[in-house]
Specification:
mainly alpha, 6 helices, about 0% strand, elongated
């Protein structure tokens, strides 16, 4: 049986909930500072739950107050991932143009 699970981007309540899971004793002000700061820094972009979890795991030894002040790290990681993906796409295109990609590999990418 195939199971399809859609992972949507995190909304304010989900960001708040994730912060609470990692910092259950955080004050409401601290949680709000993180959520509002992150949403402002995102400037309309979406953030995945995976990106948030990655941030919290990296900051697991920090206090809630310290983590709340580091919301920009989520944005930095998203930029890094975007650049990494862009570079991979460029590398793949160069390989394709030079004939390094076998037909079976190209077919697998289309599926």
């Amino acid at each position: 049986m195939d199971v399809h699970v859609e992972f949507t981007s995190a909304g304010g309540d989900q960001i708040r909930g994730m912060f609470r899971r990692f910092y259950p004793c955080a004050s409401n002000d601290t949680v709000t500072r993180f959520v509002e700061g992150l949403q402002a820094a995102l400037d309309g972009r979406e953030v995945s739950m995976a990106a948030l979890q990655h941030f919290f795991i990296l900051n697991r030894t920090n206090s809630a107050a310290v983590a709340a002040g580091r919301f920009e790290e989520v944005i930095d990681e998203m930029r890094f991932r975007d650049e990494e993906k862009k570079q991979q796409d460029q590398d793949s295109e160069v390989k394709r143009q030079r004939g390094y990609v076998e037909e079976s590999e190209e077919e697998g990418e289309e599926e």
